[in-house]
């Protein structure tokens, strides 16, 4: 696992956006997996700026979704489909046709999960998947003790996750759905490059357990240790519990520039 320590969230966003731009330059029709929440916003802002400046042409790129609430009506502003369209697809100048995600309003939710797994495979697989991390080490909505071989499936949100997400629903936890569709850990691990961004002291314990702890289902993000190309980008606060922080700083500082992330 590659660990990159950056000064702040903006620097992390710029670094990852350039990695995404470099990928699209090599593979114009790349399938980019995106995550929601506040953490990845600096990435999307930096990538959109590159598009506006003509530094990268994303006209053929495709965007796919990591997870989706179950039961929100189509077009609900806090459905993850709406969020991704608003924060990623539209700022990049892409059409909705470039976007794919699971159907959280389907009558047959399990069927929708299986269909999305098939769709990702038929699209050629995810080239780069962005990830965030929860304070308990979850990725996507794979909560602690999720199977490390799991596929896209329905999950019940923990109370803490619903409390954390209430800020997107006017602070009203009763509006937060109880269930989600999420790519499973096994599905996530099939992406060619995994990039996790974590910022803030509140993520420090989870980052340390992910990077330096054992691979264990109690810390779902630790499964990234099994991946051939996983990059963890953290600010100084999120890196504060890493025993090998100085080693990671030295390693990245001396990495050949042409290798990128």
UniProtKB/TrEMBL annotation:
Report the catalytic activity: alpha-D-glucosamine 6-phosphate + H2O = beta-D-fructose 6-phosphate + NH4(+)
Cross-referenced Pfam families:
Glucosamine_iso
GO-annotated cellular components: cytoplasm
Q: In which pathway does it act?
A: Amino-sugar metabolism; N-acetylneuraminate degradation; D-fructose 6-phosphate from N-acetylneuraminate: step 5/5
Annotated keywords? Allosteric enzyme, Carbohydrate metabolism, Hydrolase
E.C. no = 3.5.99.6
Catalytic residues (positions) = 67 (proton acceptor), 136 (for ring-opening step), 138 (proton acceptor), 143 (for ring-opening step)
Activity regulation behaviour: Allosterically activated by N-acetylglucosamine 6-phosphate (GlcNAc6P).
Query: At what residues does the UniProt record annotate the site feature described as Part of the allosteric site?
Result: 146, 153, 155-156
Q: Name a GO molecular-function annotation.
A: glucosamine-6-phosphate deaminase activity
Q: Which PROSITE patterns match?
A: GLC_GALNAC_ISOMERASE
Example GO biological process: carbohydrate metabolic process
* Glucosamine/galactosamine-6-phosphate isomerase domain residues: 10-229
Q: Domain of life of the organism in this record?
A: Bacteria
The family this protein is said to belong to: Belongs to the glucosamine/galactosamine-6-phosphate isomerase family. NagB subfamily.
**Role of this protein:** Catalyzes the reversible isomerization-deamination of glucosamine 6-phosphate (GlcN6P) to form fructose 6-phosphate (Fru6P) and ammonium ion.
Q: What is this protein called?
A: Glucosamine-6-phosphate deaminase
The gene from which this protein is expressed is nagB
């Amino acid at each position: 696992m590659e660990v990159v320590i950056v000064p702040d969230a903006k620097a992390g966003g710029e670094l990852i956006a350039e990695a995404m731009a470099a990928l699209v330059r090599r593979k114009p029709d790349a399938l980019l997996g995106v995550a929601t929440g506040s953490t990845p916003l600096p990435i999307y802002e930096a990538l959109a700026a590159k598009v506006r400046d003509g530094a990268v042409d994303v006209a053929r790129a495709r965007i796919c979704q990591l997870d989706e609430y179950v039961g929100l009506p189509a077009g609900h502003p806090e459905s993850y489909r709406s969020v991704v369209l608003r924060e990623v697809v539209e700022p990049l100048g892409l059409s909705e046709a470039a976007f794919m995600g699971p159907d959280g309003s389907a009558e047959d939710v399990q069927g929708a999960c299986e269909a999305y797994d098939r769709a990702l495979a038929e699209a050629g697989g995810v080239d780069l998947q962005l990830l965030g991390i929860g304070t308990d080490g979850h990725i996507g909505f794979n909560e602690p003790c999720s199977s490390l071989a799991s596929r896209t499936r329905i999950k019940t949100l923990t109370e803490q996750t619903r409390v954390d997400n209430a800020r997107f629903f006017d602070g009203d936890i009763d509006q937060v759905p109880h269930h989600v569709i999420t790519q499973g850990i096994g599905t996530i691990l099939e992406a060619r490059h995994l990039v996790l961004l974590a910022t803030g002291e509140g993520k420090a314990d989870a980052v340390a357990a992910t990077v330096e702890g054992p691979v264990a289902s109690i810390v779902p993000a630790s499964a990234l240790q099994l991946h051939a190309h996983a990059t963890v980008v953290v600010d100084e606060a999120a890196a504060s519990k890493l025993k090998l922080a100085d080693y990671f700083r030295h390693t990245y500082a001396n990495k050949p520039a042409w290798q990128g992330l």
